[in-house]
Specification:
The chain is α+β, with helices and mostly antiparallel strands and about 450 residues long. The protein contains nine helices and 20 strands. It has a five-stranded antiparallel β-barrel. It has a five-stranded mixed sheet with strand order 16-15-17-14-20. Strands 2-5 form a two-stranded antiparallel ribbon. The radius of gyration is 22 Å and the shape is globular.
Length: about 450
């Protein structure tokens, strides 16, 4: 084992990584057992990649000769991971202070510079009093940080107040397998339809929720122009919305490689979708578009295994290339209950952009994707992207439970909860997204 890095502490004590004295192979065994299913389902579940290492954080000793400086050193070889975060026991407790990490790339020797981890993540999650929130499995946590393929880590916590109990570092390996692409035979009398792929019960359920937008096992929901979108709604015997944007292409959960055995079985729905809350994931901007599915798999595993949620919290995710991904399972065209904006998950949807936009600006592809997605999804439920609506608060730090709050139909996370999310730069682009979405709807 290699050593612990010196740190300076602002107020009381610091917490540093304390690893059990085990080899990387032993640490890798800290992965949850796959869900037991029969036959081929069990074999597929066992083959799914990904793991989570949970490592306790312990106080550093104070070096009185250096005044307030706390020192410690530790360089640790661990099982490979790509995303990390700090978790604690009480979901209602907050970590007041700074969390900094640095990592060593897998197989390398040079360490990264110190990176800040966003500590204010209590603004996400299921609403107070809901079954998901009161399950007994939910934990408090920082935002996850994407660090790329790594096998060494150092962490330091600078508290401004008493630290919450049960602090631990979560190292997430999202798995390296590429999404499965299922060929679909063209519709022709001369060619038989392609056989549906072999799916587990959970995979079949998640995929079937998107019928009739895509065939069972599809990795992508294809885009339609506005006229075809309206005709499809009429054909499916659904009242055609007078204003609706063209359906955008959406990568399904199967397309980004979701392990459906991780999430809780079944789906939860709300009545309608009156508003969209835009978020940033605060995972950093050091990812490529080819890595986006891995980032999403990492967030998914962090939300479920580390934070104790029933599924990934967001309804949709968007990467820096403007690609849209299905988030929480239940059907992209349906009013799926998410866990994205504490107090306002009912009758809304959460759209998260992969990245951190406190100072970095989102590109035009990202803003356009937000507009395309909201023009279509809000249009399904008759909502005007440039309009206002009322949502009843489920309880939070801005609005008391039961209060009817007037919000923009496309709002930022900070409009429903006192938070920096979705970052100053992304929040500043929401006006453009509203106008563009309304144009897509033909308003």
């Amino acid at each position: 084992m290699r050593g612990l890095l010196a740190t300076s502490i602002g107020v009381t004590c610091a917490a540093a990584l304390a690893l059990p004295l085990t080899s990387p192979a032993t640490a890798a065994a800290v992965r949850p057992a796959p869900t037991a299913e029969a036959g081929t389902e069990a074999a597929r579940a066992a083959a799914l990649p990904g793991s989570t290492q949970s490592l306790p954080l312990t106080p550093l000793t104070r070096d009185r000769a250096l005044g307030s400086a706390d020192r410690g050193t530790q360089r640790t070889d661990v099982h490979r991971f790509s995303l990390l975060g700090v978790v604690w026991d009480d979901p209602d407790a907050e970590l007041h202070g700074r969390v900094q990490v640095r990592t060593r790339p897998a197989g390398g020797e040079a360490w990264s510079g110190w990176q800040e981890v966003e500590t204010h993540n209590a603004d996400h999650g299921a609403d107070p009093g809901t079954a998901e929130r009161t399950s007994g499995h939910v934990h408090g946590a920082t935002a996850p940080l994407w660090v790329g393929d790594s096998d060494g880590v150092e962490v330091r916590v600078h508290p401004d107040a008493s630290l919450p109990a049960g602090l631990r570092l979560e190292l997430v390996d999202p798995g390296a397998a590429a999404p499965v692409h299922v060929p679909v035979a063209p519709r022709s009398r001369a060619l038989p339809a392609a056989a549906p792929p072999a799916l587990s019960t959970a995979e079949r359920s998640a995929s079937a929720a998107n019928a009739p937008l895509a065939p069972l096992g599809a990795t992508r929901i294809t885009a339609l122009n506005r006229d075809r979108t309206r005709r499809e709604l009429t054909t499916k015997q659904r009242r055609a919305a007078p204003y609706i944007g063209p359906r955008p292409a959406i990568v399904t959960r199967r397309g980004w490689g979701a392990d459906e055995g991780l999430r809780e079985a079944g789906f939860r729905y709300t009545t309608t979708v009156k508003a969209a809350f835009v978020h940033h994931t605060a995972t950093g901007n050091n990812y490529t578009c080819a890595q986006a599915p891995s980032v999403i798999r990492g967030i998914y595993r962090y939300h479920v295994r580390s934070m104790g949620w029933r599924d990934i919290g967001y309804n949709f995710l968007i990467d820096k290339c403007g690609t849209i991904y299905e988030g929480r399972a239940g059907g992209v065209a349906k009013a799926v209950m998410g866990a994205h904006t504490l107090g306002f998950n009912t009758n809304s949807m959460g759209v998260a952009v992969l990245g951190t936009f406190t100072s970095a600006k989102p590109n035009s592809a990202t803003v356009k994707a937000i507009a395309r997605l909201t023009a279509w999804k809000l249009g399904l439920f008759g909502a005007n992207p440039k309009g206002k609506t009322y949502l009843k608060s489920g309880g939070g730090n801005l609005y008391a439970k039961g209060k009817n709050v007037r919000l923009n139909v496309i709002s930022g996370h900070r409009d429903g909860f006192a938070t920096e999310c979705p970052g100053k730069q992304l929040y500043g682009k929401l006006g453009t997204a509203r106008s563009t979405a309304a144009t897509y709807q033909g308003r």
